[in-house]
Amino acid sequence: MSAMRVDAKVVMLGKESVGKTSLVERYVHHRFLVGPYQNTIGAAFVAKPIQVGDKVITLGIWDTAGSERYEAMSRIYYRGARAAIVCYDLTDSSSFQRARFWVKELQNCEEHCKIYLCGTKNDMIEADRSLRQIDYHDAQDFAEEIGAQHFETSSKSGNNVDELFHKVAEDYNNNAFQYMTAEDTGVDLGQKKDSYFYSCCHN
Amino acid sequence: MDGEGQRAAASWENGTLAPVDRLRSERADSPTPGLVEGTEPGAGQKSAMFVHAQSFEDLTAEAEEEARRETELDKSGECADDLKALEEQHSNDVSSEARTKEEDVSSEAWRSHRKHVFVLSEAGKPIYTRYGTEEALSSTMGVMMALVSFVEAEKNIIRSIHADGCKVVFLTKSPLVLVGVSRTCQSDKELLRELQYIYYQIVSLLTLTQLNHIFQHKQNYDLRRLLAGSEYLTDNLLHRLDRDPGLLLSAVTCLPLPSSSRDVVSSSLQAAKSKSLVFSILLAGDRLVTLVRKKDQFLHHIDLHLVFNLVGSSSSFREGEGWTPICLPKFNTAGFFHAHISYLEPASELCLILVSTDREDFFNMSDCKKRFLERLSKRTAYTALKEALKCPSYSVAQVGIPELRHFLYKSKSSGLYTSPEFPEVYQSDEEQERLMGLYQDLHSCLHHPTRPLRSFYRCSESENLLAWVTSGFELYLCFSPLGTKALAVSAVTKLLKWIRKEEDRLFILSPLTY
């Protein structure tokens, strides 16, 4: 599976038990596993090709563990990521605080990473509206403030899940060209040499 | 070679256990077992895979040293009162917040569990309890810590309390304190060994360095924050300690596989190497298929059991490829390895674990796995391996000793053991645990700290048992209650011959290094 060329690194972040693994499971394997909660250990990687227009883009999805124990490791998972899906549980306000933490972390360390804010377990809200602890508009406002896309999904029903990942791939496809050119100039050896001498002369 | 064989046979029949002068390379072709370490059935031909340790002693050596240093402490009278206080504490401790799924710690059911395990910090803060919630037990654990400190204040170490059919065993591993409360007939030493495992389990998640660092900075830190979501690993390990002969014997069992196939699997794994790769481990459920290691680097069986527990307890590696930091405490308590964990095929039982020193090396490891699988899937050995998965064990009837019901055989030099599946009479969980309990008893008699035994025969209503330990192997046999002692003794020779005949299939005789 990993033999595939990976175009875009996507990282799942969020408090434990918000449903990051379920989201990946739904998107990659089209299923929702019922059963006792099992926390992710470390992180899990899966590559998934997705059709965008006439191109096939392979997303390399890193499903990270939410436990604080692995926080020190998290940087290796989001470093160089083109997209981060920051998840929070719509029925758990503390998970939104944790989402804010991850957003801040990404803003500080990965400026090229596009953020997708994702409220999970929407099916529970649909069954009982009183369970909602995160107002849709509050989350929407926060998303706008940080320049993120905002989704509310249900891995159980599959609602909005494909749309979320499709948007990730689409955005990657639209931005890839600009990003690549920027990168190219960044590693242009001639230029680096020049700037090196330039800085030398001025020291 | 014939002469060698006879010599070995003679020494066996005479019951002399004096070592026979023989190099490991001059392995006898004769089926008669050598009694010398390194020539017993199942001994590896070149080198051992594991740290060569008198494994069981290894686990308890520290505790014994302490015992030697400390004068024996007999506080049973005094402590019985303390224990009573502790129990009263339980009954008063009614937590209104107890989660519905969790047990009420004031209930009779909670108290009557066979074995409790508690982990607390030196500040007396609860870290783990096997049953009930930690919150509900905070005052109980406070009492436990008070007992530890009280004895410590007089420059002593509290080791155990025996009262009312109940044993309370303490293990102080700064910055943690582990307490076991048992109603089983296990010895203190056995219970301590189990607590050690739990301690290593926690260290494998955090490293000792991190653990020390945390408590140096904040003595009353709530460690449950960092261990969140790992409780089931400890629960499972405790379950294994009750059921898995490997943890008792400090050994690992292998998937029975023709040696020709195993060698192909091993060499395919050997070929898929990488600079940072230290261990490649292929598992089939709880059984080792093969293990390839870096030259001069050995894996300790405790570390391997922790890896088994991690993989076996979690379904999270089923999808995609797992990448997780793991500390192998017997290798090094200070740092993390990084393990690439994945199943060879989605529904397969075959799980590959690649242990790397570099946390950035995921894609390299992923590539190693790919290369291994590409190479292996072209060979017929892969088909043989998949075929072998269908019968991961064997019936004791194959040995051809009518009264023999079950046995455990450990080759000391290779650290591997073999055992048939449980027969009809031990099909229920309770019966299996009872048999394991009997083996545990024999094991503690053989490994008694002051009066160890070489052999031990025990008759009971439901079975007769024989245990035998030499410098080369450990053997535990379970016979029907109709068997006799003479029959049991003759069965040993017959069984060892059978194991010698089957050793190619049951053991890993030629472990590889990169």
UniProtKB/TrEMBL annotation, chain A:
Keyword Cytoplasm: yes
Cellular component GO terms held in the UniProt record: autophagosome membrane; cytoplasmic vesicle; cytosol; perinuclear region of cytoplasm; spindle
Cofactor dependence: Mg(2+)
One annotated GO biological process: autophagy
Protein keywords: Autophagy, Cytoplasm, Cytoplasmic vesicle, Cytoskeleton, GTP-binding, Hydrolase, Lipoprotein, Magnesium, Membrane, Metal-binding, Nucleotide-binding, Phosphoprotein, Prenylation, Protein transport, Transport
A Pfam family recorded for this sequence: Ras
Main enzyme class: hydrolase
InterPro entries: P-loop_NTPase (IPR027417), Rab24 (IPR041828), Small_GTP-bd (IPR005225), Small_GTPase (IPR001806)
Subcellular location as annotated: Cytoplasm, Cytoskeleton, Spindle; Cytoplasm, Cytosol; Cytoplasm, Perinuclear region; Cytoplasmic vesicle, Autophagosome membrane
Transmembrane feature ranges: none
Catalytic reaction annotation: GTP + H2O = GDP + phosphate + H(+)
E.C. code: 3.6.5.2
Molecular-function annotations in GO: G protein activity; GTP binding; metal ion binding
Biological role: The small GTPases Rab are key regulators of intracellular membrane trafficking, from the formation of transport vesicles to their fusion with membranes. Rabs cycle between an inactive GDP-bound form and an active GTP-bound form that is able to recruit to membranes different sets of downstream effectors directly responsible for vesicle formation, movement, tethering and fusion. RAB24 is an atypical RAB protein that presents low GTPase activity and thereby exists predominantly in the GTP-bound active state. RAB24 is required for the clearance of late autophagic vacuoles under basal conditions.
NCBIfam families linked to this entry: small_GTP
Family the entry assigns: Belongs to the small GTPase superfamily. Rab family.
Listed name of the protein: Ras-related protein Rab-24
TrEMBL record, chain B:
Domain FUZ/MON1/HPS1 third Longin: 403-503
Region (Disordered): 1-77, 88-107
Composition bias, Basic and acidic residues: 66-77, 88-104
A UniProt-annotated Pfam family: Fuz_longin_3
Bilayer-spanning residue ranges: none
Any one of the GO BP annotations: vesicle-mediated transport
GO CC terms in record: Mon1-Ccz1 complex
Domain FUZ/MON1/HPS1 first Longin: 115-237
Matches recorded under InterPro entries: FUZ/MON1/HPS1_longin_1 (IPR043972), FUZ/MON1/HPS1_longin_2 (IPR043971), FUZ/MON1/HPS1_longin_3 (IPR043970), Mon1 (IPR004353)
Residues covered by the FUZ/MON1/HPS1 second Longin domain: 275-373
Domain of life: Eukaryota
Function field: Plays an important role in membrane trafficking through the secretory apparatus.
Family assignment from sequence similarity: Belongs to the MON1/SAND family.
Protein name: Vacuolar fusion protein MON1 homolog
Species annotation: Scomber scombrus (Atlantic mackerel)
